[in-house]
Amino acid sequence: MTGLSTLDETVFLAAPLRPRGKRGSLPLVLPLVHGGSARVECRFEVTGPDDAPVIVVAGGISAGRHVLANHEDPTPGWWQGQGVSLADCRVVAIDWIGADGTLDAPIDARDQAVAILSVLDHLGIHRAAGFIGSSYGAMAGMHAVALAPGRWARLLAISAAADSHPFTSAQRTLQRQAIELGERLGDPAAGVSLARKIAMLTYRTPDEFEERFSDPVTVIDGRARISAEAYLDAQGLRHCQRINPVGYRRLSESIDLHAIDPAVIEVPTTFIAVDTDRLIPVDAIRRLADAAPHGRFASLSSPFGHDAFLKEHEAVAAIIQEFLSPQEPAR
Questions:
Q1: Strands 37-47 and 21-31, bridge-based pairing
Q2: What is the pLDDT along the chain (331 residues), one digit of tens a residue?
Q3: Plot region of 88 (φ>0 → left; ψ -120 to 50 → alpha; else → beta)
Q4: How many C-beta neighbours within 10 Å does residue 136 have?
Q5: DSSP 8-class letter at 114
Q6: Contact 325, 89 (CB under 8 A)
Q7: Which of 62, 306, 307, 313 is catalytic?
Q8: Which residues contact 76 (CB under 8 A, 6 or more apart)?
Q9: In Å, how far are 67, 120, 249, 293 from 56, measured between CA atoms?
Q10: Are 52 and 119 in contact (CB under 8 A)?
């Protein structure tokens, strides 16, 4: 799966699908991994025909239940680029527990997995054809198949390892400190914005920035301004409008709290690494695949780093198509 090119986004986004959609909210009492129980509302969305194979889809900490446009919500979903590849599936997704800021406590990816399994119970789904997780979603997916291996045919885990690398944990710590600084200064939104700007430098790559933002530094109003600054400002502004400081901080922590023994991932699993990913080293994913009982490793070449699952529409579609059409029957 190396060397796959990027197809123009307009090919995938020009005609968003409008399948059947259903939304709901499930009240839960979650026994949190890191102490105590919490009353939460787990919001979910189901897209696609009732008789189609069920696929749970989960993305990064900024993703939510709205994966694909549908009749219930016709706006483009966060993974609208995969609307065609997921067209024949019944897609189930949730808003991450804690994303709304109502749970100000340490949240583990295993807690998210329990919430997902609870939603499947609520929907009367006893077995799913697969779980497709990217980034944080892949972490939750590993825990979901470990908790209930008999309920899943297979797992596709994109850009996630068995635990967090100390260097990337340090980077996320700085993001959380930026949020806390904004709160102390009375401007929480500014803290979230700055945290997101820092995060963007870990999601993308130096090569992409060199290609896109190579214009010379200019002086505007007595201040040096780099060509990437407007892009970073826009990313920060957009993010602080869609997530609150508590939700961002707690989900960021959750990534660092993630840890799983590969031996407990007992279902057939394809682990995908991106060669330029600055957050999840390729070797860490390869080790995870080698240690998982039914693990398979594959790599994707992309200039977009960790964000490749959001940007490489054609390449990721090919990965999903192969995942949904396995050569060997699922257990």
A1: antiparallel
A2: 433 333 334 444 444 556 788 999 999 999 999 989 999 999 999 999 999 999 999 999 999 999 999 999 999 999 999 999 999 999 999 999 999 999 999 999 999 999 999 999 999 999 999 999 999 999 999 999 999 999 999 999 999 999 999 999 999 999 999 999 999 999 999 999 999 999 999 999 999 999 999 999 999 999 999 999 999 999 999 988 888 999 999 999 999 999 999 999 999 999 999 999 999 999 999 999 999 999 999 999 999 999 999 999 999 999 999 999 865 443 3
A3: alpha
A4: 24
A5: H
A6: no
A7: 306
A8: 13, 16, 69
A9: 10, 9, 25, 22
A10: no
User: What does DSSP assign to residue 224?
Assistant: E
Give the other-Cβ count within 10 Å of 286's Cβ. Answer: 17
Is residue 77 within 8 A of residue 93, CB to CB? The reply is no
Whether 135 is catalytic is yes
Structure tokens, 75: 């706006």
Look up residue 48 and give its two tokens.
């696609």
Task: Say what angle helices 166-184 and 245-257 make with each other, to 10 degrees.
Answer: 160
Q: What is the CA radius of gyration of the chain?
A: 19
Identify whether 73 is a catalytic site residue. Answer: no
Of the residues 62, 85, 118, 135, only one is catalytic, namely 135
Of 111, 277, 302, 313, the catalytic one is: 277
Angstrom distance (rounded) from CA 92 to CA 116 = 9
Catalytic, 313? Answer no
